[in-house]
Protein backbone atom coordinates (compact mmCIF):
# COMPACT_ATOMS: atom_id res chain seq x y z
CA UNK A 1 0.00 0.00 0.00
CA UNK A 2 1.18 3.49 -0.87
CA UNK A 3 -1.01 6.57 -0.30
CA UNK A 4 -0.40 10.31 -0.07
CA UNK A 5 -2.96 12.10 2.13
CA UNK A 6 -3.93 15.70 2.61
CA UNK A 7 -3.11 16.03 6.30
CA UNK A 8 -6.23 18.07 7.10
CA UNK A 9 -8.59 15.49 5.57
CA UNK A 10 -6.73 12.56 7.13
CA UNK A 11 -6.75 14.13 10.59
CA UNK A 12 -10.50 14.82 10.37
CA UNK A 13 -11.09 11.11 9.78
CA UNK A 14 -8.71 9.96 12.51
CA UNK A 15 -10.28 12.37 15.03
CA UNK A 16 -13.58 10.54 14.52
CA UNK A 17 -11.92 7.11 14.65
CA UNK A 18 -10.47 7.62 18.12
CA UNK A 19 -13.92 8.57 19.45
CA UNK A 20 -14.86 4.96 18.79
CA UNK A 21 -11.75 2.87 19.40
CA UNK A 22 -11.31 1.87 23.07
CA UNK A 23 -7.98 2.49 24.76
CA UNK A 24 -8.25 0.13 27.75
CA UNK A 25 -8.89 -3.37 26.42
CA UNK A 26 -7.09 -6.66 26.87
CA UNK A 27 -6.79 -7.50 23.17
CA UNK A 28 -4.47 -5.10 21.31
CA UNK A 29 -6.26 -5.56 17.97
CA UNK A 30 -9.37 -3.96 19.47
CA UNK A 31 -7.41 -0.68 19.64
CA UNK A 32 -6.77 -0.60 15.91
CA UNK A 33 -8.14 0.95 12.73
CA UNK A 34 -8.26 -0.85 9.40
CA UNK A 35 -7.11 1.26 6.42
CA UNK A 36 -7.64 -0.09 2.92
CA UNK A 37 -6.77 1.54 -0.41
CA UNK A 38 -8.83 -0.02 -3.19
CA UNK A 39 -8.57 -0.23 -6.97
CA UNK A 40 -11.61 2.04 -7.32
CA UNK A 41 -9.75 5.12 -5.98
CA UNK A 42 -11.17 4.90 -2.45
CA UNK A 43 -9.43 4.74 0.92
CA UNK A 44 -11.66 3.03 3.49
CA UNK A 45 -11.20 3.51 7.23
CA UNK A 46 -12.97 1.06 9.54
CA UNK A 47 -13.27 0.97 13.34
CA UNK A 48 -15.32 -1.74 15.04
CA UNK A 49 -16.34 -2.42 18.64
CA UNK A 50 -19.05 -4.58 20.18
CA UNK A 51 -21.40 -1.57 20.19
CA UNK A 52 -20.53 0.49 17.11
CA UNK A 53 -19.08 0.47 13.62
CA UNK A 54 -17.60 3.58 12.03
CA UNK A 55 -16.74 3.76 8.34
CA UNK A 56 -15.01 6.68 6.62
CA UNK A 57 -14.05 7.08 2.98
CA UNK A 58 -11.52 9.38 1.33
CA UNK A 59 -11.66 9.56 -2.46
CA UNK A 60 -8.73 9.87 -4.88
CA UNK A 61 -10.24 12.70 -6.92
CA UNK A 62 -7.32 13.04 -9.29
CA UNK A 63 -7.34 16.83 -9.37
CA UNK A 64 -7.10 19.93 -7.17
CA UNK A 65 -6.51 19.53 -3.42
CA UNK A 66 -6.78 15.78 -3.25
CA UNK A 67 -7.88 14.13 0.05
CA UNK A 68 -5.96 11.00 -0.95
CA UNK A 69 -3.75 9.98 -3.86
CA UNK A 70 -3.49 6.20 -4.17
CA UNK A 71 -0.24 5.07 -5.75
CA UNK A 72 -0.61 1.41 -4.76
CA UNK A 73 -3.66 -0.35 -3.24
CA UNK A 74 -3.41 -2.46 -0.10
CA UNK A 75 -4.59 -2.82 3.48
CA UNK A 76 -3.03 -2.25 6.91
CA UNK A 77 -4.24 -2.51 10.49
CA UNK A 78 -2.51 -0.18 12.97
CA UNK A 79 -3.05 1.28 16.43
CA UNK A 80 -5.63 4.05 16.07
CA UNK A 81 -4.59 6.41 18.86
CA UNK A 82 -0.90 6.33 17.96
CA UNK A 83 -1.43 6.94 14.24
CA UNK A 84 -3.71 9.87 15.01
CA UNK A 85 -1.19 11.40 17.46
CA UNK A 86 1.57 11.07 14.86
CA UNK A 87 -0.46 12.69 12.08
CA UNK A 88 -1.60 15.49 14.38
CA UNK A 89 1.98 16.48 15.19
CA UNK A 90 3.48 16.24 11.72
CA UNK A 91 4.45 19.63 10.29
CA UNK A 92 3.81 19.06 6.60
CA UNK A 93 0.57 19.55 4.66
CA UNK A 94 0.87 16.08 3.13
CA UNK A 95 1.37 12.69 4.81
CA UNK A 96 2.38 9.47 3.08
CA UNK A 97 1.53 5.93 4.22
CA UNK A 98 3.57 3.09 2.71
CA UNK A 99 3.47 -0.50 3.90
CA UNK A 100 6.49 -2.78 3.61
CA UNK A 101 6.74 -6.52 3.14
CA UNK A 102 8.08 -6.77 6.71
CA UNK A 103 4.72 -5.75 8.21
CA UNK A 104 5.71 -2.13 8.86
CA UNK A 105 3.79 1.02 7.99
CA UNK A 106 6.12 3.90 7.08
CA UNK A 107 4.60 7.32 7.79
CA UNK A 108 6.45 10.33 6.33
CA UNK A 109 5.92 14.07 6.15
CA UNK A 110 8.69 16.53 5.26
CA UNK A 111 11.65 15.58 7.51
CA UNK A 112 9.69 13.27 9.83
CA UNK A 113 9.56 9.50 9.43
CA UNK A 114 7.86 6.87 11.59
CA UNK A 115 7.92 3.10 11.24
CA UNK A 116 4.93 1.41 12.88
CA UNK A 117 4.30 -2.26 13.47
CA UNK A 118 1.08 -3.48 11.85
CA UNK A 119 -1.31 -6.35 12.53
CA UNK A 120 -2.27 -9.15 10.22
CA UNK A 121 -5.49 -7.88 8.55
CA UNK A 122 -7.05 -11.31 9.17
CA UNK A 123 -7.00 -10.61 12.92
CA UNK A 124 -9.27 -7.58 12.45
CA UNK A 125 -12.83 -8.75 12.99
CA UNK A 126 -15.02 -7.37 10.22
CA UNK A 127 -18.60 -6.54 11.28
CA UNK A 128 -21.36 -9.00 10.49
CA UNK A 129 -24.92 -8.04 11.28
CA UNK A 130 -28.21 -9.80 10.90
CA UNK A 131 -30.65 -6.99 10.29
CA UNK A 132 -34.22 -7.11 11.48
CA UNK A 133 -36.77 -7.37 8.71
CA UNK A 134 -38.66 -4.15 9.52
CA UNK A 135 -36.60 -1.19 8.36
CA UNK A 136 -37.50 2.47 8.44
CA UNK A 137 -35.42 5.35 7.14
CA UNK A 138 -35.48 9.12 6.77
CA UNK A 139 -33.49 12.12 5.57
CA UNK A 140 -32.93 15.06 7.90
CA UNK A 141 -30.64 18.02 8.31
CA UNK A 142 -27.45 17.26 10.25
CA UNK A 143 -27.89 20.31 12.47
CA UNK A 144 -31.42 19.21 13.36
CA UNK A 145 -30.20 15.74 14.34
CA UNK A 146 -27.37 17.21 16.39
CA UNK A 147 -29.82 19.48 18.22
CA UNK A 148 -32.26 16.62 18.85
CA UNK A 149 -29.47 14.57 20.43
CA UNK A 150 -28.44 17.52 22.61
CA UNK A 151 -32.04 17.91 23.78
CA UNK A 152 -32.36 14.29 24.90
CA UNK A 153 -29.13 12.65 26.11
CA UNK A 154 -28.72 14.97 29.13
CA UNK A 155 -31.76 13.35 30.79
CA UNK A 156 -30.54 9.73 30.45
CA UNK A 157 -29.74 7.66 33.50
CA UNK A 158 -26.16 6.76 34.43
CA UNK A 159 -27.30 3.83 36.56
CA UNK A 160 -27.15 0.29 35.19
CA UNK A 161 -30.13 -0.99 37.19
CA UNK A 162 -32.52 -0.08 34.35
CA UNK A 163 -30.56 -0.40 31.07
CA UNK A 164 -33.31 1.11 28.89
CA UNK A 165 -33.05 4.42 30.75
CA UNK A 166 -29.37 4.67 29.81
CA UNK A 167 -30.53 5.31 26.26
CA UNK A 168 -32.76 7.52 24.17
CA UNK A 169 -35.86 6.11 22.53
CA UNK A 170 -35.67 7.21 18.90
CA UNK A 171 -38.90 6.81 16.93
CA UNK A 172 -39.58 7.39 13.25
CA UNK A 173 -43.17 7.99 12.25
CA UNK A 174 -44.49 11.49 11.80
CA UNK A 175 -40.93 12.77 11.92
CA UNK A 176 -38.13 11.78 14.30
CA UNK A 177 -38.89 11.84 18.03
CA UNK A 178 -36.48 11.42 20.95
CA UNK A 179 -37.56 10.64 24.52
CA UNK A 180 -35.31 10.06 27.53
CA UNK A 181 -35.64 9.89 31.31
CA UNK A 182 -33.67 9.05 34.44
CA UNK A 183 -36.88 8.88 36.58
CA UNK A 184 -36.24 12.35 38.00
CA UNK A 185 -36.67 14.21 34.71
CA UNK A 186 -38.01 13.59 31.24
CA UNK A 187 -36.95 15.09 27.90
CA UNK A 188 -38.84 15.23 24.62
CA UNK A 189 -37.67 16.53 21.25
CA UNK A 190 -39.11 16.21 17.76
CA UNK A 191 -37.84 17.02 14.26
CA UNK A 192 -39.87 16.96 11.07
CA UNK A 193 -38.22 14.68 8.50
CA UNK A 194 -38.84 13.20 5.09
CA UNK A 195 -39.77 9.62 5.96
CA UNK A 196 -38.63 7.27 3.21
CA UNK A 197 -39.84 3.88 4.41
CA UNK A 198 -41.69 2.43 7.38
CA UNK A 199 -42.00 3.39 11.04
CA UNK A 200 -40.27 2.04 14.12
CA UNK A 201 -38.27 2.79 17.26
CA UNK A 202 -35.09 1.73 19.03
CA UNK A 203 -33.41 2.55 22.33
CA UNK A 204 -29.93 3.89 21.55
CA UNK A 205 -27.17 4.34 24.18
CA UNK A 206 -26.78 8.02 25.08
CA UNK A 207 -22.97 7.79 25.14
CA UNK A 208 -22.80 6.82 21.47
CA UNK A 209 -25.42 9.35 20.44
CA UNK A 210 -23.22 12.06 21.98
CA UNK A 211 -20.29 10.74 19.93
CA UNK A 212 -22.49 10.83 16.82
CA UNK A 213 -23.44 14.45 17.53
CA UNK A 214 -19.76 15.38 17.86
CA UNK A 215 -18.99 13.83 14.46
CA UNK A 216 -21.92 15.29 12.52
CA UNK A 217 -21.07 18.11 10.09
CA UNK A 218 -22.14 21.65 10.94
CA UNK A 219 -22.94 22.71 7.37
CA UNK A 220 -26.45 24.13 7.08
CA UNK A 221 -27.25 22.08 3.99
CA UNK A 222 -25.65 18.74 4.97
CA UNK A 223 -28.22 15.95 5.11
CA UNK A 224 -28.08 12.72 7.13
CA UNK A 225 -29.59 9.43 6.02
CA UNK A 226 -30.98 7.68 9.11
CA UNK A 227 -31.90 4.00 9.16
CA UNK A 228 -33.70 2.73 12.27
CA UNK A 229 -34.06 -0.98 13.01
CA UNK A 230 -35.00 -2.78 16.22
CA UNK A 231 -31.41 -3.74 16.95
CA UNK A 232 -29.47 -0.70 15.68
CA UNK A 233 -29.47 2.74 14.12
CA UNK A 234 -27.22 3.86 11.27
CA UNK A 235 -26.49 7.47 10.36
CA UNK A 236 -24.63 8.25 7.14
CA UNK A 237 -23.69 11.55 5.52
CA UNK A 238 -21.27 13.13 3.08
CA UNK A 239 -22.95 11.17 0.26
CA UNK A 240 -22.30 7.95 2.16
CA UNK A 241 -18.66 8.84 2.81
CA UNK A 242 -19.21 8.50 6.55
CA UNK A 243 -21.38 5.88 8.21
CA UNK A 244 -21.86 5.34 11.95
CA UNK A 245 -23.79 2.34 13.20
CA UNK A 246 -24.84 1.98 16.86
CA UNK A 247 -26.14 -1.18 18.45
CA UNK A 248 -29.46 -0.67 20.26
CA UNK A 249 -30.06 -1.50 23.93
CA UNK A 250 -31.90 -4.80 24.25
CA UNK A 251 -34.47 -3.55 26.76
CA UNK A 252 -37.99 -2.17 26.59
CA UNK A 253 -38.31 1.58 27.07
CA UNK A 254 -41.15 2.50 29.48
CA UNK A 255 -44.29 4.12 28.12
CA UNK A 256 -43.90 7.83 28.86
CA UNK A 257 -47.13 9.00 27.20
CA UNK A 258 -49.09 8.98 30.47
CA UNK A 259 -46.49 11.04 32.31
CA UNK A 260 -46.82 14.24 30.30
CA UNK A 261 -49.27 16.55 32.08
CA UNK A 262 -52.15 18.04 30.09
CA UNK A 263 -53.43 20.60 32.58
CA UNK A 264 -51.37 23.23 34.36
CA UNK A 265 -52.07 25.45 37.35
CA UNK A 266 -49.77 28.27 36.21
CA UNK A 267 -47.50 29.59 33.45
CA UNK A 268 -44.31 31.49 34.32
CA UNK A 269 -42.55 32.86 31.24
CA UNK A 270 -38.99 34.21 31.58
CA UNK A 271 -36.05 35.19 29.38
CA UNK A 272 -34.07 32.02 28.75
CA UNK A 273 -30.57 33.55 28.94
CA UNK A 274 -31.38 35.53 32.10
CA UNK A 275 -32.84 32.47 33.82
CA UNK A 276 -29.74 30.40 33.02
CA UNK A 277 -27.44 33.09 34.44
CA UNK A 278 -29.57 33.35 37.59
CA UNK A 279 -29.71 29.59 38.13
CA UNK A 280 -25.95 29.30 37.67
CA UNK A 281 -25.42 31.92 40.39
CA UNK A 282 -27.73 29.99 42.70
CA UNK A 283 -25.86 26.76 41.91
CA UNK A 284 -22.69 28.23 43.47
CA UNK A 285 -24.34 27.76 46.87
CA UNK A 286 -26.71 24.87 46.17
CA UNK A 287 -24.09 22.57 44.60
CA UNK A 288 -22.99 21.49 48.08
CA UNK A 289 -26.49 20.74 49.37
CA UNK A 290 -28.29 17.41 49.15
CA UNK A 291 -29.71 16.99 45.63
CA UNK A 292 -28.52 20.53 44.75
CA UNK A 293 -31.86 21.93 45.86
CA UNK A 294 -33.12 25.49 45.45
CA UNK A 295 -36.51 27.13 45.83
CA UNK A 296 -38.45 29.60 43.80
CA UNK A 297 -41.60 31.60 44.40
CA UNK A 298 -43.68 33.44 41.81
CA UNK A 299 -44.72 36.84 43.12
CA UNK A 300 -45.20 40.41 41.83
CA UNK A 301 -43.91 39.77 38.32
CA UNK A 302 -40.81 37.94 39.51
CA UNK A 303 -39.49 34.47 40.14
CA UNK A 304 -37.55 34.68 43.38
CA UNK A 305 -34.89 32.01 43.83
CA UNK A 306 -33.00 31.05 46.95
CA UNK A 307 -30.80 28.33 48.33
CA UNK A 308 -28.70 27.78 51.40
CA UNK A 309 -25.97 25.53 52.67
CA UNK A 310 -25.21 25.37 56.42
CA UNK A 311 -21.46 25.46 55.71
CA UNK A 312 -21.14 27.70 52.62
CA UNK A 313 -23.91 30.25 53.13
CA UNK A 314 -27.07 31.29 51.31
CA UNK A 315 -28.19 33.09 48.17
CA UNK A 316 -31.27 35.00 47.04
CA UNK A 317 -31.84 36.13 43.47
CA UNK A 318 -34.73 36.87 41.11
CA UNK A 319 -35.69 37.13 37.47
CA UNK A 320 -38.52 39.06 35.84
CA UNK A 321 -41.41 36.86 34.73
CA UNK A 322 -44.83 36.98 33.13
CA UNK A 323 -47.02 35.13 35.63
CA UNK A 324 -50.34 33.56 34.80
CA UNK A 325 -52.30 31.41 37.23
CA UNK A 326 -51.41 30.45 40.78
CA UNK A 327 -48.24 31.59 42.52
CA UNK A 328 -46.50 28.50 43.89
CA UNK A 329 -43.54 27.97 46.17
CA UNK A 330 -41.57 25.13 44.57
CA UNK A 331 -38.36 23.25 45.28
CA UNK A 332 -36.22 21.70 42.53
CA UNK A 333 -32.79 20.40 41.58
CA UNK A 334 -30.92 23.39 40.15
CA UNK A 335 -28.59 21.37 37.94
CA UNK A 336 -31.49 19.46 36.42
CA UNK A 337 -33.23 22.74 35.56
CA UNK A 338 -30.07 24.25 34.04
CA UNK A 339 -29.38 21.20 31.87
CA UNK A 340 -32.94 21.07 30.60
CA UNK A 341 -33.09 24.78 29.77
CA UNK A 342 -29.65 24.84 28.13
CA UNK A 343 -30.68 22.01 25.83
CA UNK A 344 -33.52 24.06 24.38
CA UNK A 345 -33.67 26.79 21.73
CA UNK A 346 -35.52 30.07 21.77
CA UNK A 347 -35.50 33.33 23.68
CA UNK A 348 -37.97 32.40 26.42
CA UNK A 349 -38.73 29.49 28.70
CA UNK A 350 -42.18 28.81 30.14
CA UNK A 351 -42.31 27.00 33.47
CA UNK A 352 -45.61 25.18 33.88
CA UNK A 353 -46.23 23.77 37.36
CA UNK A 354 -49.15 21.40 37.79
CA UNK A 355 -49.20 21.87 41.55
CA UNK A 356 -46.92 22.51 44.53
CA UNK A 357 -45.50 18.96 44.55
CA UNK A 358 -46.22 17.77 41.01
CA UNK A 359 -44.02 17.66 37.88
CA UNK A 360 -42.77 20.95 36.46
CA UNK A 361 -42.97 21.13 32.65
CA UNK A 362 -40.53 23.36 30.78
CA UNK A 363 -41.26 24.58 27.27
CA UNK A 364 -39.29 26.74 24.85
CA UNK A 365 -40.48 28.90 21.96
CA UNK A 366 -40.22 25.73 19.88
CA UNK A 367 -43.31 23.53 20.47
CA UNK A 368 -41.23 20.46 19.55
CA UNK A 369 -39.06 20.83 22.67
CA UNK A 370 -40.18 20.22 26.22
CA UNK A 371 -38.95 18.68 29.45
CA UNK A 372 -40.22 17.64 32.86
CA UNK A 373 -38.34 18.09 36.12
CA UNK A 374 -39.73 16.51 39.27
CA UNK A 375 -39.92 18.93 42.21
CA UNK A 376 -38.82 18.25 45.77
CA UNK A 377 -41.21 18.66 48.65
CA UNK A 378 -41.00 21.94 50.51
CA UNK A 379 -42.16 22.48 54.07
CA UNK A 380 -42.76 26.20 53.95
CA UNK A 381 -41.54 29.37 52.34
CA UNK A 382 -39.00 29.86 55.10
CA UNK A 383 -37.61 26.34 55.49
CA UNK A 384 -35.54 24.08 53.35
CA UNK A 385 -36.80 20.81 51.88
CA UNK A 386 -38.01 18.01 54.09
From TrEMBL:
Domain (DNA polymerase III beta sliding clamp C-terminal) ranges: 258-377
GO biological process: DNA strand elongation involved in DNA replication
Domain DNA polymerase III beta sliding clamp central positions: 140-255
TM regions (residue ranges): none
Source lineage: Bacteria, Bacillati, Bacillota, Bacilli, Bacillales
Listed name of the protein: Beta sliding clamp
One CC-aspect GO term: DNA polymerase III complex
Molecular function via GO: 3'-5' exonuclease activity; DNA binding; DNA-directed DNA polymerase activity
Similarity comment text for this entry: Belongs to the beta sliding clamp family.
Domain DNA polymerase III beta sliding clamp N-terminal: from-to ranges: 1-124
Quaternary structure and partners: Forms a ring-shaped head-to-tail homodimer around DNA.
Main location: cytoplasm
Function field: Confers DNA tethering and processivity to DNA polymerases and other proteins. Acts as a clamp, forming a ring around DNA (a reaction catalyzed by the clamp-loading complex) which diffuses in an ATP-independent manner freely and bidirectionally along dsDNA. Initially characterized for its ability to contact the catalytic subunit of DNA polymerase III (Pol III), a complex, multichain enzyme responsible for most of the replicative synthesis in bacteria; Pol III exhibits 3'-5' exonuclease proofreading activity.
Keywords: Cytoplasm, DNA replication, DNA-binding, DNA-directed DNA polymerase, Nucleotidyltransferase, Transferase
Domain of life of the native organism: Bacteria
Entry-linked PANTHER family: BETA SLIDING CLAMP, DNA POLYMERASE III SUBUNIT BETA
Keyword DNA repair: no
Localization, UniProt: Cytoplasm
